[in-house]
Design a protein that fits this description.
Order of helices and strands of chain B: HHHHHHHHH
Radius of gyration of chain B: 18 Å
Number of strands of chain B: 0
Helix content of chain A: 55-70%
Number of helices of chain B: 9
Distance between the termini of chain A: 24 Å
Strand order of the largest sheet of chain A: 1-2
Distance between the termini of chain B: 13 Å
Oligomer: heterodimer
Radius of gyration of chain A: 18 Å
Shape of chain B: globular
Order of helices and strands of chain A: HHHHHHHEEHH
Largest interface: A-B, 42 and 43 residues
Shape of chain A: globular
Number of domains of chain B: 1
Structural class of chain A: mainly alpha
Number of helices of chain A: 9
Strand content of chain A: under 5%
Chain lengths: 206, 193
C-alpha cells in the first residue's frame, strides 16, 4: 500500500528526473543557476506550484471536460504561480528581485503541465500528491547541483547572498567568470548531463 | 525613433532571447534538428510573438489597469496567448491552407513557449509604449529565429560528426549552444536602453 507511494516519490527523483532524464524545464534551469540561493529558491517555488496544482487537478479530474483540459490545467497552474509570486514578493524581496520574470514563467514550465497531463489528470489525489513531491524534489535537487557547481567555479563562493557565505578556495582564488555567464550555464549543464548519462548507465537505470 | 532602433539592435544581438536570456529553450533544443522545421518554427514564432505583444499590451492597458486588476496579469496573459494561438490556427486553416500546412503543427507548441509569455510580461514591465512593445516583440522573435536557425545549421553538420557515447543527444547540443552563446557575448555592453 505505502510501497506505491514510495515508488511515486523515488521515480521523480531518479528514473524520471525532470532535468537529467527528461530534459524538461530548461529555461529556469539555465537562467537562474548562477547562484546557489537562486537555484534553491527557484526549485522550491516550482515544487510548491507543482505539488499544489497536481493535487487540485487530480481532485478535479472527473469534472474537467476532456476537450478543454489544457486551458483548465493552465488556469489552475497560473493561480498557484500568482500566489507564489505574491508570497515571494512579500517575504523574500531579494530573492524575488533575483528571480525576476522567471517566477511568472513557472506557468509555462513544461514539467508542471507535463505532470498534469501525464499523471494528475488520470490518477487519484494521494498518488498525485506524492508524484508532485517526487518530481519537485528531483527538480530542486538538479537545480541545487547545477547552481552549486556554477557558483563554486564561477564565483569561487558558496551560499552567496545569504549570511552563510563562504569562499571555497580562499579569497585569493580567481574564479572562472564565464561559468557564471549564460555561456557557462549551457556548457556546465551539458557536461553534467553527460556525467549523469554515464552514472545512469552504470546503475542500469532505464 | 532612436529608442526603436536600439530596441531592435539590443534584442536581436546584445540581449538575444535564447542565448543570453534563456527564454524559449525548449523549442530551441526540440525543433533545431532540421533546418526546414527550424524555419517553420521561426516563422510561426515571429508571427505569434508580434501579435501576442500587441494584444496583451492592449489588454493590460485598457482592461486590467482601469479595473485595477494588475495582479491578475499572469493568469490573464496566458489565457490571452492561448486563445490567440487557437484563433490564429483556426483563421489560418480557413484563409490560407498552404500557410497552415507550413506553420500548423508548430502553433500549439507556441502556447507553452516561455519566450511568448516573457515578451508580454517584459513589455509591460519595461513600460514600453504600444509601438515600442510591438517592435520589441518582433525584435525578440527575430533574435530567437536567428539563434534557432544557426543552431539547426550546426546540428545538421553535427549529425555527421562522431560524438562520444556519454555526450550524445542533448548534452552535445547544450555544449554547442554554450559555444554559440560565447560568440554572442561579443556583443555584450555595446548598447543598453
Amino acid at each position: 500500500m505505502s510501497n506505491i507511494y514510495l515508488q511515486d516519490i523515488s521515480r521523480g527523483i531518479i528514473k524520471e528526473n525532470p532535468v537529467f532524464r527528461l530534459v524538461l524545464g530548461m529555461c529556469p534551469t539555465l537562467a537562474i543557476t548562477a547562484l546557489f540561493r537562486n537555484g534553491l529558491g527557484m526549485g522550491l517555488s516550482a515544487a510548491a506550484v507543482l505539488i499544489c496544482s497536481n493535487v487540485v487537478i487530480s481532485s478535479l479530474r472527473r469534472f474537467i471536460p476532456d476537450r478543454v483540459r489544457i486551458p483548465c490545467y493552465i488556469v489552475v497552474i497560473a493561480t498557484f504561480v500568482t500566489i507564489i509570486d505574491m508570497i515571494l514578493k512579500a517575504f523574500q524581496p531579494a530573492l524575488y528581485e533575483a528571480l525576476g520574470v522567471f517566477i511568472p514563467l513557472i506557468v509555462v514550465n513544461c514539467i508542471i503541465l507535463g505532470r498534469a497531463e501525464a499523471f494528475a489528470g488520470k490518477k487519484p489525489v494521494l498518488r498525485s500528491l506524492f508524484d508532485g513531491i517526487g518530481i519537485g524534489i528531483g527538480f530542486t535537487l538538479s537545480l541545487v547541483i547545477l547552481s552549486a557547481v556554477r557558483e563554486i567555479i564561477g564565483s569561487g563562493t558558496i551560499l552567496q547572498e545569504t549570511p552563510y557565505v563562504a569562499h571555497v578556495f580562499g579569497t585569493a582564488f580567481e574564479p572562472m567568470a564565464v561559468i557564471a555567464q549564460p555561456a557557462g550555464a549551457f556548457i556546465v549543464l551539458g557536461l553534467l548531463l553527460a556525467l549523469a548519462n554515464v552514472i545512469f548507465k552504470r546503475l542500469n537505470v532505464n | 525613433m532612436e529608442k526603436l532602433l536600439s530596441i531592435i539592435f539590443i534584442y536581436i544581438l546584445v540581449d538575444n532571447f535564447v542565448l543570453q536570456r534563456f527564454f524559449g529553450i525548449c523549442p530551441f533544443l526540440g525543433v533545431s534538428r532540421k533546418m526546414e522545421t527550424a524555419m517553420g518554427m521561426s516563422m510561426a514564432v515571429v508571427f505569434v510573438m508580434a501579435l501576442a505583444t500587441l494584444v496583451t499590451w492592449l489588454f493590460y492597458t485598457h482592461v486590467l489597469v482601469p479595473l485595477r486588476l494588475e495582479y491578475l496579469q499572469i493568469v490573464a496573459f496566458i489565457l490571452v496567448i492561448a486563445s490567440l494561438v487557437q484563433l490564429v490556427e483556426t483563421v489560418l486553416r480557413k484563409i490560407s491552407p498552404t500557410l497552415y500546412q507550413g506553420l500548423g503543427i508548430f502553433l500549439p507548441l507556441i502556447t507553452t513557449n516561455c519566450a511568448v509569455l516573457a515578451v508580454a510580461l517584459l513589455a509591460v514591465q519595461n513600460e514600453f509604449t504600444l509601438v515600442e512593445a510591438v517592435v520589441f516583440g518582433i525584435a525578440a522573435s527575430i533574435g530567437f529565429s536567428i539563434a534557432l536557425i544557426i543552431m539547426a545549421g550546426i546540428r545538421e553538420r553535427l549529425e555527421l560528426a562522431k560524438v562520444p557515447g556519454a555526450l550524445q543527444g542533448t548534452a552535445v547540443t547544450l555544449i554547442t549552444a554554450g559555444i554559440l552563446s560565447l560568440a554572442f557575448m561579443g556583443f555584450r555592453g555595446m548598447l543598453s536602453l
